[in-house]
Amino acid sequence: MLSAKIRSILFKNKKTLPILLIFLFSALFFCTRLPGLKNDIINPDSALWHYRSEQFIVGIKNKQFEKTYQHYQPGTTLMWITGSAVEIYKKITGTFSYDSENFQNFDLVSKISVISVQFVLSMMIIFVLAKIIGFYQSFFTVTLFTFEPFFLANSRLYHMDILLTLLLTLSLIIGFLNMKEPKIWKSLLIGVLLGFSFLTKSISLGAVIFIIIYSLIFFIYSNQREKIIPILGSILVSFILTVFIFLPALWVNPIYYLSDIFSEVVRVGVRKGHDQILFGEATTRAGIIFYPLVTLMKISPFILVGLVFCLYYSVNFIRNISKTFKKVNLAFSTFSIYYAVFSLGYIFAISLPAKKVDRYILVIYPFLAYFAYIGFQRVFQNIKIDYKKKIFTSVLIIMSIIFWIIPIFKLYPWYFTYTSPIFGTPQNANKIVAQKPYGVGIPLLKDTILKYYAKSNKDDLPKLGFYDTQPIKTIYPNSKLFDVRVYGPSNYDILILGINEEMPEKIVNNKEYLFEKSHSIWINGLEYWRIYNKVTLGGNDNGK
């Protein structure tokens, strides 16, 4: 009786259910992103972006506009968001400088500001995509990628990849709508979004080129040549103005800073590789196989099953093209082609450079979710018997519980370590594409050091040897941190090795000191941090 009344209330007004779904999405969005945010990850780049954002705001306030260019990526959108939030926090609290005691508070403010912008962009995607495929289809597509464990993990980082993904996705959707119903205001909005995308990461220039060329071809073949100049011109003008307005360094010397962006992209992003361990072998050039492996490893089986269904019906679509065209909504299928062309082009583009990082696949998560949803939808539409539809729906619910809800609870807050169960255990996955420390559990590591290794005098902290000191230096005295690749064991009391990090040569070859493992920090079944105590043997230390 109660369920019948609830259904009556929900469906009596067609607007009630969408409102409830949006409310549920909003609640789950923040419930999966805010808890434990302060103490989970301090990624290596976060310290750098805190400094860059601070310098960015200093440049704005003091009209030293050259300081607004801090990096070739260039990360300007991130600096506007977090720099402004931190500046407000400073005014409210009266805390004006970073130190190892208050860094996590600044970091939390920055993360929350980025997450809030991500939420706004996600809402915009739901409502804009709904104009193409309908509200419920749009809602469940966005839900599919928003709560993917690895996507969720990266949305909690102080970084740019999720911000880039959402900006690009929104740009592409509005870009498609603008082809179907061209409007100057849409073109201007597309230019602004593409401008912010480029200011987030310069690889977004590819999206600008894609939208311009695709729109140009569309207008030519649909006999709308008169739209080419005003529509595409508006996009370009809006894009250029957005980039110049929001990167004030360009006001000072546009040629220098733009050339530096592109020259550094080529030097660092294309020519210079990135350390990876693939099938147990260290390499800086992971090759074409890297992204297919990472994609399979980082997407959930739930998405993967939907993609298999979609692939099956795509093959069927080609075989029965004359019949299928009568059934499939033309606008829907055209958007699918449009989105597929961009996403496949993006995959090709990131596969060519030597530098390969698992986070770069995040841009295609909305693409994967979109086509996974199509796969589930096609199966549901082809089931003719009601009780079988109910069984299929129940199976999907069970799959979502197994592959989404359980991992979200089980991995909390270490979502960044997620690997698909199709690879077996996290240990098996680590043998294929090795995990990186990436600042996972750094606050927990500090607490462990203070608990077991600090002396009674809290100022007399042990000296630590690390491979990458960037994350720990944000919350630990810098004078007591040493890069083990540079300094010998006489300089530090404790050696800390992250997951898949080997004993440094300076220690292996040293005859005076021995380091014995005393503690391990396990995360998601992996020995993420190993802590070694120094024991004196005698002999000579080579030092630095």
Structure description:
The chain has helices at 2-12, 16-31, 44-61, 76-93, 103-133, 135-146, 149-155, 161-180, 184-200, 205-221, 228-246, 249-252, 254-271, 290-298, 301-319, 321-327, 330-351, 365-382, 386-411, 426-432, 442-452, 505-508, and strands at 276-278, 281-283, 464-466, 481-483, 494-498, 513-523, 526-536. The chain has a 5-stranded mixed sheet, with no helix packed on it. With 544 residues, the chain is of the alpha/beta class. The chain is built from 22 helices and 7 strands. A hairpin with a 2-residue loop joins strand 1 (276-278) and strand 2 (281-283). The termini are far apart. It is globular. Residues 324-332 and 539-544 have low confidence and may be disordered. Helix 5 runs antiparallel to helix 6 (135-146), helix 8 (161-180) packs antiparallel against helix 9 (184-200) and helix 15 (301-319) packs across helix 18.
Summary tags:
five-stranded mixed beta sheet; two-stranded antiparallel sheet; 22 helices; globular; disordered C terminus
What is this entry, summarized?
Helix 2 packs parallel to helix 6 (135-146) and helix 5 runs antiparallel to helix 6. Helix content is 61%, strand content 7%.
Shape: globular
Mean pLDDT: 89
Low-confidence stretches: 324-332, 539-544
Strand content: 5-15%
Give me the strand/helix succession: HHHHHHHHHHHHHEEHHHHHHHHEEEHEE
The level of helicity is 55-70%
Number of strands: 7
Number of helices: 22
Structural class: alpha/beta
Side-by-side strand order of the widest sheet: 4-3-5-7-6
Distance between the termini: 77 Å
Radius of gyration equals 26 Å
Q: Mind summarizing the main beta sheet?
A: 5 strands, mixed
